[in-house]
TrEMBL record:
<feature type="transmembrane region" description="Helical">
    <location>
        <begin position="483"/>
        <end position="503"/>
    </location>
</feature>
<comment type="similarity">
    <text>Belongs to the glycosyltransferase 2 family.</text>
</comment>
<keyword id="KW-0808">Transferase</keyword>
<dbReference type="Pfam" id="PF03706">
    <property type="entry name" value="LPG_synthase_TM"/>
</dbReference>
<dbReference type="GO" id="GO:0005886">
    <property type="term" value="C:plasma membrane"/>
</dbReference>
<dbReference type="InterPro" id="IPR029044">
    <property type="entry name" value="Nucleotide-diphossugar_trans"/>
</dbReference>
<dbReference type="GO" id="GO:0006487">
    <property type="term" value="P:protein N-linked glycosylation"/>
</dbReference>
<feature type="transmembrane region" description="Helical">
    <location>
        <begin position="308"/>
        <end position="328"/>
    </location>
</feature>
<dbReference type="InterPro" id="IPR022791">
    <property type="entry name" value="L-PG_synthase/AglD"/>
</dbReference>
<dbReference type="Pfam" id="PF00535">
    <property type="entry name" value="Glycos_transf_2"/>
</dbReference>
<feature type="transmembrane region" description="Helical">
    <location>
        <begin position="449"/>
        <end position="471"/>
    </location>
</feature>
<feature type="transmembrane region" description="Helical">
    <location>
        <begin position="356"/>
        <end position="374"/>
    </location>
</feature>
<keyword id="KW-0472">Membrane</keyword>
<feature type="transmembrane region" description="Helical">
    <location>
        <begin position="240"/>
        <end position="258"/>
    </location>
</feature>
<dbReference type="InterPro" id="IPR035518">
    <property type="entry name" value="DPG_synthase"/>
</dbReference>
<feature type="domain" description="Glycosyltransferase 2-like">
    <location>
        <begin position="2"/>
        <end position="164"/>
    </location>
</feature>
<dbReference type="InterPro" id="IPR001173">
    <property type="entry name" value="Glyco_trans_2-like"/>
</dbReference>
Length: 574
């Protein structure tokens, strides 16, 4: 029997004695574990005294508060019984139900048992606001997580040891949502779960903070719904494997459809010298990326060396080639924090500005190129939608920043006020205000806007010129299509290919980028087989240089791939 205790000096002794008295009526083979979770009111001293006085009491102490779920996990792993239970220390649930709780697991064959304050037969009394919040919460759990239970959070539960331990590794929550996650996962796994009505009285004080914990549990409902609805996306490794397999399937399908033998023959015809030249040209864009990022950070009051910043970009872009959804950008935040102690807010805002100006550049290029291409061929509807969507996103972004900039006179004062606020809400507002303010400093001021826009256009101009050289490496294309028309066509193809990267489908947009380029080349009169070959070679050159540069930068900074690729989740939590 586990008694989770945080600042329960007023209740712990009574809880132990009443629990022991009740258990002795059922069995003489039991232990009571006090899972004391970083208490500051003397609960730890009282628990130690009880453990010394009674042989059946065990005290597990934590110097810092771990959270309800983590404290329970630790206690259950230390327990020796085959039937594991826990009850709230305030004894809000009538102890006459304890024998039923234990026997449900020990003799009736259930894997999980829980008391319920919300079944029609239950007798529960508590304040209206808690009753209302609890009913709303449990309704959402039943609706979104397909649970059949009425009450998921009653602190009166029992588990078959083997069944619980089979689930614990999957349970992610360490605090109040632990109960719900265990019961929901148990039902989804097909374990036998019983819920029975209990007599329950509000125990007075509660450690639940309605404003904070209910909001957090709402996000946990969404998190668990996503994991149960899309199980292959639960683990990071599973997601990488799935999206990589999807990229390979896309490439394999297109290659098979167009004719793999024709594509291989096209590769043999490509000029090796021109491909090498294309690679050298693409290398020039990387110092430019470093200069742009350096200018963004400088305007935010941070001055770092060009070599370091270019290396950090190499690493984050390499992570983007490997990981889906461009979460490799978080690796750069980690490097800036670890090496230069740069605040996450500043690194996040600077990278966001960089990404927005990438979209500005490629959208502008796409609009200009589509206007020029209109006289030669008609764009597919999805191409027009993609350009319009990215253009709308850019307009909305700058509209928000212009509003922030317009009100900049009061921004600093508001920031100081928000920083002084306590609690999660104040921190979130402060973070959002700081983020918007920093982005407006770079994106809205004319001098900054011009500098970042020009550097972004240069970067993407080099990216496009690289693809132009790859296309020129095919003699048949170079002879049949004029250079002027070819450049405008490549402008549109590369722009659409990179706009497609905004949508997190595959790592590094491998597959989707090639499909977008092949489609545009096909509309422009270039044979699909050659267009696909050009797209593949162009992407291979760019990704290879990115990965090689990333590897060299890692070595220079004394980092490892595993360290960088595994920090993204930690950065998000931070």
């Amino acid at each position: 029997m586990v008694l989770p205790a945080y600042n329960e000096a007023a209740n712990i002794e009574k809880a132990v004695l009443v629990t022991a008295e009740t258990l002795f009526k059922t069995t003489d083979q039991f232990e009571i574990i006090i899972a004391e979770d970083g208490s500051t009111d003397g609960t730890d001293r009282m628990a130690s005294g009880l453990a010394e006085q009674y042989a059946y009491v065990v005290h597990l102490h934590s110097d810092k508060r771990q959270g309800r779920g983590k404290a329970l996990n630790r206690a259950f792993k230390a327990a020796s019984g085959e039937v594991l239970c826990y009850i709230d220390v305030d004894l809000a649930t009538d102890m006459r139900h304890l024998e039923k709780l234990i026997r449900a697991v020990s003799t009736e064959g259930y894997d999980f048992a829980t008391g319920s304050r919300m079944m029609p037969e239950s007798d529960a009394k508590r304040p209206f606001k808690r009753e209302f919040a609890s009913k709303g919460y449990n309704f959402l759990v039943r609706l979104f997580l397909r649970s059949k239970l009425y009450d998921h959070q009653c602190g009166f539960k029992a588990f078959r040891r083997e069944a619980l331990f089979e689930l614990l590794d999957e349970v992610e929550n360490d605090h109040w949502f632990w109960d719900t996650e265990v019961l929901v996962r148990a039902q989804h796994k097909g374990y036998r779960v019983i819920e029975f009505p209990v007599c329950w009285r509000h125990g007075g004080s509660s450690k639940v903070n309605l404003a904070k914990d209910v909001k957090g549990m709402g996000s946990e409902i969404f998190r668990l719904w996503r994991e149960l609805s899309f199980p292959l996306e639960v683990s990071g490794k599973g997601k990488v494997f799935l999206t990589t397999a999807l990229a390979i399937l896309i490439l394999a399908f297109v290659a098979t459809f167009l004719g793999a033998s024709d594509i291989l023959e096209n590769v043999k015809q490509a000029s090796f010298r021109t491909l090498v030249l294309a690679s050298l040209v693409y290398c020039v864009s990387w110092p430019l990326r470093g200069v742009r990022f350096q200018q963004i950070l400088k305007r935010l009051g941070n001055q770092y060396g060009l070599g370091f910043l270019t290396g950090s970009i190499f690493i984050s872009q390499s992570a983007n080639v490997i990981l889906p959804a461009r979460i490799g950008d978080l690796s750069r935040m980690y490097i800036l924090k670890k090496s230069k102690d740069l605040a996450f807010t500043t690194s996040f805002s600077s990278i966001t500005v960089e990404r927005v100006f990438d979209i500005v550049a490629i959208t502008s290029i796409a609009i200009l190129a589509s206007s020029g291409a209109a006289s030669h061929f008609e764009l597919a509807p999805w191409m027009e939608s993609l350009i319009k969507l990215s253009g709308l996103a850019v307009v909305l972004f700058f509209l928000i920043l212009f509003i922030v900039s317009f009100r900049e006179g009061n921004t600093r004062k508001r920031l100081e006020m928000k920083k002084s606020q306590n609690g999660t809400s104040g921190k979130i507002k402060s973070f959002a205000s700081t983020l918007l303010h920093q982005m407006s400093v770079v994106a809205v001021r004319p001098s900054s806007f011009l500098a970042v826009t020009v550097s972004s256009l240069l970067i993407w101009g080099i990216d496009i010129f690289t693809c132009f050289l790859v296309l020129k490496s095919f003699p048949t294309v170079a002879e049949s299509v004029s250079s002027t028309y070819m450049i405008s066509l490549i402008f549109l193809a590369v722009a659409l290919g990179n706009i497609a990267k905004i949508f997190p489908i595959t790592p590094g947009a491998i597959g989707t980028y090639e499909v977008a380029l092949t489609a545009v080349f096909g509309l422009g009169g270039i044979e699909p087989e050659i267009g696909f070959t050009v797209a593949v070679l162009d992407h291979i050159i760019k990704n290879s240089i990115t990965l090689i540069g990333g590897g060299l930068a890692l070595s220079e900074l004394g980092l490892r791939w595993r360290e960088v690729l595994c920090t993204d989740k930690d950065v998000l939590k931070g």
